[in-house]
# Entry
Amino acid sequence: MRKLLLLALLWPCMSVLYAQTPNRFQIQGITADTSSTPLGSATVMLLQRKDSSLVNFTRTNDKGAFAMRNVKRGDYLLKISYVGYIPFQQDIVFGDKEIVDLGTLKLKAITKELFEVVVKTARAPLSIKGDTIEYNAASFKVPPGSTVEDLLRKLPGVQVDQNGNIIAQGQQVQKVTVDGKRFFGSDPKMATQNLPADAITKVQIFNDKTEQSKVTGVDDGKQEKTVNLELKEGFKKGGFGKLTAGLGADGNGNAGPRGEIKGNYNKFDDKNQFSVIGLTNNTNQTGMSWDDYQDFRGSSSFNSWNDNGDFGFGGGGGRYIIIGGDDDGGLSIPVGGGNGRGYSNNIAGGINYNYNTKKIKTNASYYYNSTRQVVDAVRNRENFLQNGSFKTEEESSQINFVGNHRLAFRHEQTVDSLNAFIFTNNSRYNVGDTRLNSLQEFFRNNNFKSNETTINNATNVDKIETANTLIYRLKFKKNKGRSFAASASYNFTNNDGVADQKSLNLFYNATDPTDVMRRMLDLTNNTGSRVSQLKSSLLFVEPFAKRFFWESFVNLSYRSDNVDRDVFDLAKDSGRRVPVDSLSSFYKNSYNYARIGSSVRYSYKGLNFSGGLAVQSFQIDGKFALGQNPASFININRRFTTWIPNASLNYDLKNNRYLWSGYDVSVSQPSTRDLQPVIDNSNPLIIRQGNPDLLPTVNHNINFGYNMFNPASFMNVNVNMYYSYNVNQVVYNQQVDPTTLITVTKPVNITGGQNIGSYIGFGFPIKKTKASMNINFNPGFSKNLTPINGVLNQTNTDSYRFGTRLDLTPSDNFTIFANANWSVSNTRYSINTGQNQQIVNHSYSGTMNIRLPKDFFINSNLNYQIYKNERFGFNQQVPILNTSIYKILGKAKKAEIRLSIYDVFNRNLGVSQFANQNYVSQERIQTLARYGMLSFTYNMRGMNTNIKRRGGFF
Amino acid sequence: MKNIKLSTVRYQLRQSGFAILALIGLGFSISAKAQQTEGMVTYEYKYYWTKVNSRLTFLSKEEKDRMKLTWGNEEDGPGTKMKLTFNDKQSIYTYFSDQGQTEDGRYSWRQSDYLIHRNFEQEKLIENHEMLGKTYLLEDSLMTYNWRIQNQIKDVAGYVCMKAETFDPIKNHKITAWFAQDIPVSAGPERYFGLPGLILELDINDGDVIVAAQKVELKNVDKELALPKMKGKKIKNNDYDQMLKKHIFDSIKAQRNPYWSIRY
# Structure
């Protein structure tokens, strides 16, 4: 039987015939433990000695015997392993005999303590190097702040006495080394009592030769117990920063020098991220870039997707990401912006801290930004009436200042596997002031000046905003898929503003030029507004059948607005403040909002469908009065109930193809300003009227999309379609008085406006890795309804946009990325077909990069916009070319010096033209145009020298 | 007394497993008692994408750091569950469940076809890969891996495992496998096999992907070892390797991430 078994053991090489050559050997032996008990089922491996490559393996039988036949002559190592024993190794020496009998091979047991504690309990890998056994210290839990000594006490086979002496495997430790080196002289306690435990990754305990034998080279046979501590690699810890400073000259004479400084620094380890950022410039860069934002916010960059407490269809309420925001509004840090109109000086800076563990994610940040902008503009506008038209010409000069202090705090805590909560606070303190000087002149058809207005306005705004949300999420142990979430929010805004309006209006008589009517206006407005809102939402998800979920939500909200506006006239009584009751107002509105909805979701293998219905009720209780100390109020009490259906489909198809579709209904409530039955004549030429009968706007949207990409051929296809239909859309009915040219606007509800459109895109490589192309086609058709002077006008706009993109990356030294877009839109008016027009927009843009020898680079960007409207004789062409040459300095490529010219052709004239159904306008703003700049950048992480990629995803 | 009995039984079982391994070589077949050499392992497959993306040569250090700082903390979520069904003759490795889904199950996605079959007896393999926009059926003879055995042991899912290393020259990956000394089967997760024991943990390229056993059930799995019907373009080992090689080369050259569309 034994022979049979032995034979069987050799099944991997059974087919090879037994040959009587001296080059084929049989290796055999018996494995046993130190007390000669045979070890059956031990793994016996034959390895190449040079690299431990596995050549052959077998197992021992129940008597501990093994045999390997047909082994070619070679340089081998025999390795035997058995659970609980130190793996045995022996070199194989081939002799003349065909059978290499190794006799009985004895395996030493791993100390029971070591095996149980290190391998089984701490689950740490155990490395065996001769008689050295090392293990991962990170697996042994010690409280933070512990020293290595505390750690050693935990290790099996190690004792530390009261004096700090270490005894390992029964012997006193003579030497403690750190990364193999002596640590602070010869006292072993120096290392163990001073080093923090969390700096250590491995502990090795072994016998080392004595110092004396090392020095003399004579092995005295004595050995010292040695502990070696290996330090953690610092790769999860670091710091980096970047600084750019530039100085330049403006190409347009009178404008002053240009300059910019920006810098950021980050320090991080596996739990903490700390960063600061600062920037200042007068080159119209209002905020940091997305890359800078990500460096600044670190792990908090995109966490707000989960922070929406307004649960709705889709369950989470957080399917939309709210980031960025416009330049002055919003609680979140502004990103991007810049290259705006006029001239601006900008200052921004902030600090951010993130703390992340598996259970806790905390973020706190402060950010300040300010912009002082000068806008000098010339505007022309022609308004068309049913019979004729009138023109407006305006010259204005405006200086705006806005400053924001933003504080953000977020804490996410996973209490246990079932409970979690998120608290967020975002606050902003905003100050702003504006000075506006303007001269407006109005001309009739025959170029007769009918009136003229000189305006000197000043406003000051002081605003505090805060938004706080607490979200709690609960999962259930027994029912996977059942979940509950609750949220509560409190938002508050306090806004105090002072606006001084000074204007002189001159009305000319058409027949007698000397007959001029003068109207002086010198008003000061004090407005105080307080808005507070309390919100709460609940969400419950129940898996009611396999693959089916029932999702229900409730939203409740109460909002209260208090606005007090006091207007005084300074003109009437030579500088004394005279209250103007007709312009002063007070209102208090409260809004109650409740929504309840339910949907059914199906999800299986990438087919996700959800359909549901909600009902919402919206109630306005408002009171309104004119005057500074009103005695009586006008009450507005309205209640709207709307049914909202919803459906969505996502389908994940084979081979990277996706299909989606959705139907949703959005409801916008009329604003109180539009509902107030009050006439607002603060602008004497455009008088606004409220409409208490307004209904909420209901917008129906349907969309459908498909996309696919082929990763092998780099080909992709994108198709989507949308349709939207408006019910009770709020539009402003315009009534122009043909004699005074005063426009009266009033909001009304109109049903029937709609949009339909599509986007079709196709991308493919022309030559793989060298050239690729994208083409897209984007048709859109819209129908809008507007009443003009009492007549309902239907505007149909058909637009066709065709775009193409070409990426040329022929080598690492030269790349071009080019875009071209052509679009044509035809607008037709139902009541005044003579105004039908065609607008043509073309744009060509491109980026070219060249890498020259000696780390010199050239980068050029062209953006060429063409705008044509034949009806009004517009033909505007704006080519903006920015180009720079730079050199990367140093071996580590950490610094860069760059010479840039912005707007080489000096064509950034700030011209914009706009044509609407009843007017056409043109505006020209003195704007930052050509300037040159020499800048220097130092980046601790090295400059990016890659010119082949446009950035974005990878 | 009872304890001794139990350990004897276990010892015998271990021996019988060994005996079966031996007998199979001679063409005998006894499977009733073959407990040690057949069963099912549930693995968790975790893909650390910020680590993978950090290896993209065309990214600057700044871009890599930015990615790690922003997303590095988001990778603690659960991985994909995989299962390996094995006996001493063959093994099948594929997804544990027939769909991918979020933790709460409310959103699901399709899993790309992926099945790895090894037939140790006939030295043959069948693999089903949905990758690069197509589904392939790889049928060929078994390849060999040059495993280097290391002097390290650790516990994985209750089994003491020994470390072995090899290298994937196509993807340029360092492969570390931990094989169980107590389960004498040459099977393993993903495409790896050929060690003296069952591979319970696989570390692809220094922690870019970790496939670790969570549960090991030793039981009869004859039924589960039946191959499902698979369709796909037929391909051989060599062409498969060439195709991967070309895709990785082209993607890196075009500065795209090659790993979105192939198994890492």
Summary: The first helix of chain A runs from residue 2 to 9. Helices of chain A lie at 2-9, 112-121, 148-154, 188-194, 211-216, 290-297, 672-675. The radius of gyration of chain A is 39 Å.
